[in-house]
């Protein structure tokens, strides 16, 4: 099975291991490493790479239950057991490597947070391609069901998505709908309408992936999942616990998990390798089951 086949038709889910500068302290704290354990950003990124390496090299983390993994740029540029991280994922684990390419969120306007500009994106795409990365991921956030803001989100995601396709990589478009917003179902309806319109403008041989919040209405994204221009639709946990995210995921047929915090829930730097691998195995199995039910 090649990477395109696995990304589109493989059984399992996508692990999101792409915490960046803003979210890394939270991820480390949840793992049992407080901010006092490092004195600068370099030391912080060294520690998160050790954590990610522990997850990726675990015997629980294999292509049997994982379709892919999303990496932070610094992780892509580092090695795991003597191989480039992306190369290790595919060659050793049979897990398709993706790269987070956005530079974070702009200030809220019209009820949404667009992505900040991504300078040097073409160069980053070329570097990722040369390192064996298959696709990318980029996140923006809908905070209110504002039609103008949601249109701006969809326009930006597809504009940058087309640039990524031109660079030879598969884009995961992630217009997240904040699970705590009022009238989220209205926002999700506007979002789906916008996405369907943009999908119609893609070239004959072009496809994208989508990463969306688990919808309020079960199976609401069934038409996106079945759309010929969509390789796969994955879901973020979005602040739900792993148990609740899994429970909601099961009710959405064909929707695949792409969890970050919910995947690493319960893992700790203080655990022995046996304890760590057992906890990760249970976590992966529960998300795998929810993604394939």
Give your account of this protein's structure.
The model has no long low-confidence stretch (mean pLDDT 96). It is globular, with a radius of gyration of 18 Å. The protein folds into two domains: 14-100 and 237-250 and 257-293, Aldolase class I (TIM Barrel, Alpha-Beta Barrel); 104-235, Alpha-Beta Barrel (TIM Barrel). Helices cover 43% and strands 18% of the residues. The longest helix has 20 residues, at 147-166. α8 (184-199) links the parallel β8 and β9. It has 293 residues and is α/β, with parallel strands linked by helices. The strands form two sheets. Strands 1, 2, 5, 6, 7, 8, 9, 10 and 11 form a nine-stranded mixed β-sheet that branches. A two-stranded antiparallel ribbon has the order 3-4.
**CATH top-level class of the largest domain:** Alpha Beta
Straight-line N-to-C gap: 22 Å
Gyration radius over CA: 18 Å
Biggest sheet architecture: 9 strands, mixed
The run of helices and strands is: HEHHEHEEHEEHEHEHEHEHEHH
Query: What is the count of distinct domains?
Result: 2
Name given to the CATH homologous superfamily of the largest domain? Aldolase class I
| Arithmetic mean pLDDT | 96
Could you estimate the helical fraction of the residues in percent?
Answer: 40-55%
The CATH topology of the largest domain is given as TIM Barrel
Tally of individual helices = 12
Number of E strands: 11
SS strand fraction: 15-25%
């Amino acid at each position: 099975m090649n990477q395109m086949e696995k990304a589109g038709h493989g059984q399992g889910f996508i692990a999101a291991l792409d915490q960046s500068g803003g979210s890394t302290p939270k991820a480390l704290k949840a793992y049992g490493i407080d901010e006092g354990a490092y004195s600068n950003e370099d030391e912080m990124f060294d520690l998160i790479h050790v954590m990610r390496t522990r997850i990726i090299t675990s015997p629980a983390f294999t292509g049997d239950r994982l379709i892919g993994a999303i990496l932070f740029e610094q992780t892509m540029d580092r090695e795991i057991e003597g191989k480039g991280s992306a190369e290790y994922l595919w060659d050793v684990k049979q897990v398709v490597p993706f790269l987070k390419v956005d530079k974070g969120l702009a200030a809220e306007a019209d009820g949404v947070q667009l992505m900040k500009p991504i300078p040097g994106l073409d160069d980053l795409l070329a570097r990722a391609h040369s390192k064996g990365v298959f696709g990318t991921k980029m996140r923006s956030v809908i905070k209110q069901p504002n039609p103008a803001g949601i249109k701006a989100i969809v326009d930006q995601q597809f504009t940058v998505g087309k640039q990524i396709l031109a660079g030879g990589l598969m884009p995961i478009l992630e217009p997240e709908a904040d699970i705590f917003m009022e009238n989220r179902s209205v926002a999700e309806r506007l979002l789906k309408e916008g996405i369907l319109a943009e999908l119609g403008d893609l070239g004959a041989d072009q496809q994208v992936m989508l990463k969306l919040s688990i919808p309020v209405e079960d199976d609401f994204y069934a038409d996106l999942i079945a759309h010929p221009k969509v390789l796969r639709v994955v879901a973020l946990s979005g602040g739900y616990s792993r148990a609740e995210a899994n429970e909601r995921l099961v009710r959405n047929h064909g929707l695949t998990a792409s969890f970050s915090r919910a995947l690493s829930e319960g893992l700790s730097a203080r655990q022995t390798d046996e304890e760590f691998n057992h906890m990760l195995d249970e976590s992966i199995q529960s998300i795998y089951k929810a993604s394939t039910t």
